[in-house]
């Protein structure tokens, strides 16, 4: 029992440290970046810093921003990464558990199959509720 | 020996918590040590509604090990932006003696912060029948990103016909990418270890 208490204390301390780290993230400004783009009159909702990092090394690409329901743990995220990792047309993947968003990068000349994205998400036991396509 | 233990840790996880159905095409390997019955269990998910698997487990009465085939079916799932809720029916039958079999109803509800789950299981062995029930609740003291080390502080309670008493004990769950480790302690059973790996 003593060992459990020690382990618990350690992870609570880790939690405080991580919370501080995320507060610093939110202070960063991203005006004028791609993440402020409007798609079909709708502003995309995505973690700005995360999005900017994702597109940093992407040229001549298009990005599918997928809103996912039920994505609550690393098993969900890992499944999505594995599933889309097998799709040769997907060049980069990012799974954000906090916002329930999945970013998928495709070459600009690829026709993105929205139904296939929804099917792949469903094959992970999750639901894709919205998909927005952005050109980079 | 240390390498072997490390490999086992990397190659395994726990049944009662890890979702018993993976993504389509996904494999899961689990190991349960210290809590009777010990077992090693592999399952494969050909369809998002069910998984099939093989189990090599210890009989609760005779302590002898036997292989069994297992099937899990997803009865109901509800996804929201912040949660997932599942209800499963599970069954298994011994490959060497069909007297060893079980069926169970299990459910879980999970957000990134909170977890609750239950299991009701009817187990039959050679010369005995047993009803087991368990419930578990947990809280994540911090929210990590995908790939971070996730930690859950949990409490589990169990009761079965064999001991005819309820045992309640703390559980520490550590979770990272496709690997999960659960350590539980109770004075009557001492330490138990559950390991899982999804690939």
Automatic annotation (TrEMBL), chain A:
Domain of life: Bacteria
Signal sequence interval, chain numbering: 1-19
Gene3D superfamilies, alphabetized: 3.30.70.100
Annotated HMA domain residues: 62-129
Pfam families recorded: HMA (PF00403)
TM regions (residue ranges): none
Keywords assigned by UniProt, alphabetized: Signal
Any one GO molecular function term: metal ion binding
Protein name: HMA domain-containing protein
Species the sequence originates in: SAR92 bacterium BACL26 MAG-121220-bin70
UniProtKB/TrEMBL annotation, chain B:
Keywords per UniProt: Signal
Signal peptide: 1-18
Keyword Signal applies: yes
Domain of life per record: Bacteria
Name under which the protein is recorded: Outer membrane protein beta-barrel domain-containing protein
Protein source organism: SAR92 bacterium BACL26 MAG-121220-bin70
């Amino acid at each position: 029992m003593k060992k459990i208490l020690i382990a618990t204390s350690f992870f609570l301390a880790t939690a405080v440290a991580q919370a501080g780290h995320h507060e610093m993230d939110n202070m960063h400004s991203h005006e004028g970046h791609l993440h402020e783009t409007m798609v079909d009159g709708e502003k995309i909702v995505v973690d700005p810093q995360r999005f900017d990092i994702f597109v940093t090394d992407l040229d001549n690409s298009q990005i599918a921003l997928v809103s996912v329901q039920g994505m609550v743990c690393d098993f969900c995220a890992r499944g999505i990464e594995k599933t889309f990792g097998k799709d040769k047309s997907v060049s980069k993947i990012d799974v954000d558990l906090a916002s329930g968003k999945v970013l998928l990068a495709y070459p600009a000349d690829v026709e993105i199959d929205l139904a296939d994205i929804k099917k792949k998400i469903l094959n992970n036991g999750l639901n894709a509720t919205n998909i927005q396509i952005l050109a980079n | 020996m240390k390498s072997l233990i490390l490999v086992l840790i990397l190659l395994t996880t726990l049944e009662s918590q890890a979702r018993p159905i993976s993504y389509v095409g996904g494999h899961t390997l689990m190991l349960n040590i210290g809590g009777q019955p010990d077992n090693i269990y592999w399952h494969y998910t050909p369809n998002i509604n069910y998984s099939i698997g093989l189990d090599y487990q210890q009989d609760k009465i005779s302590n002898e090990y036997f292989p069994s085939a297992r099937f899990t079916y997803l009865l109901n799932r509800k996804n929201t932006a912040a949660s997932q809720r599942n209800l499963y029916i599970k069954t298994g039958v011994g490959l060497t003696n069909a007297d060893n079999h079980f069926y169970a109803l299990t459910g879980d509800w999970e957000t990134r912060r909170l977890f609750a789950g239950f299991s009701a299981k009817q187990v039959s062995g050679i010369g005995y029948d047993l009803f087991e029930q368990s419930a578990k609740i947990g809280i994540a003291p911090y929210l990590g990103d995908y790939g971070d080390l996730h930690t859950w502080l949990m409490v589990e309670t169990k009761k079965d016909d064999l001991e005819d008493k309820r045992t309640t004990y703390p559980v520490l769950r550590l979770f990272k990418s496709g690997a999960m480790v659960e350590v539980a302690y109770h004075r009557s059973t001492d330490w138990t270890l559950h390991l899982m790996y999804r690939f």
